[in-house]
Design brief:
Layout (H helix, E strand, L loop, with lengths): L1 E9 L2 E6 L2 E7 H4 L9 E2 L1 H26 L4 H10 L4 H13 L5 H13 L5 H10 L4 H7 L5 H19 L4 H14 L4 H12 L8
Antiparallel strand pairs: 1-2, 1-4, 2-3
Helix pairs in contact: 2-4, 3-4, 5-7, 8-9, 8-10, 9-10
Length: about 210
């Protein structure tokens, strides 16, 4: 068994280190019901199970409060609960229960988030990054991204390029095209869409083929 090497309070949470490594952050009021002392041997799984049982009701109420404030993905909500001092097993069980009760729907969340970006001049890679940042599954992301096809991306990239080109059209053609391409790549567009958009715009200038 591991040894509790350090226990300290930090912003209402008890930070528990085992063998010199931070292991767990637990809400102070729950820790008081299942305290540990420095130097004590700890059966980690037994402690997690016991703490999860203590926290179950409070964790569910905390999750409902978060959902009242804003829609959440399951992954995001689980991470937030852990940061608030609920142990991972109870956070995961809470999210599972919320999914079963249809209070969390990651597929619908991903679809709504992707659709909100569809009408903007933004690249599919950037949208995927935003969805992944919400800890959504690749399956839900792929389903949400179905409308971001080649034609949509080509049109969105041209729109973005037209807005950006005025920043670079005074530069030498080769430099202007390079900077525009880099700017579009940063916005998450693929190289095929970028190449088409840049050639369309810079092809209007007399010195495109410098």
């Amino acid at each position: 068994m591991a040894i509790a090497s350090d226990i300290r309070e930090f912003r209402g949470l008890m930070e528990i280190s085992l063998d010199g490594v931070l292991w767990l952050r637990v809400r102070k009021k729950h820790f008081a019901l299942r305290p540990l002392e420095q130097g004590q041997a700890v059966d980690t799984q037994a402690y997690l199970d016991a703490m999860a049982a203590l926290q179950a009701a409070d964790c569910y109420e905390a999750a409902l409060t978060m959902l009242d404030q804003a829609a959440q993905t399951g992954g995001d909500l689980c991470a937030k609960l852990v940061r608030k001092g609920y142990v991972p097993p109870v956070a995961e069980a809470t999210v599972k229960r919320l999914r079963e009760n249809r209070l969390i729907d990651d597929a619908r969340y991903a679809q709504r988030m992707a659709q909100a970006q569809l009408g903007k001049a933004v690249g599919a890679y950037a949208v995927r990054r935003k969805l992944r940042a919400k800890r959504l599954s690749e399956e839900d992301i792929d389903a949400a991204m179905e409308d971001f096809d080649d034609a949509q991306q080509a049109a969105a990239c041209r729109e973005a390029a037209e807005k950006l080109w005025r920043k670079y059209d005074a530069l030498p053609p080769r430099e202007g095209r390079a900077k525009l391409s880099q700017a579009l790549a940063r916005r998450g567009f693929g190289w095929d869409a970028i190449r088409s958009a840049v050639e369309t715009l810079s092809g209007d200038s007399d010195d495109y083929d410098d």
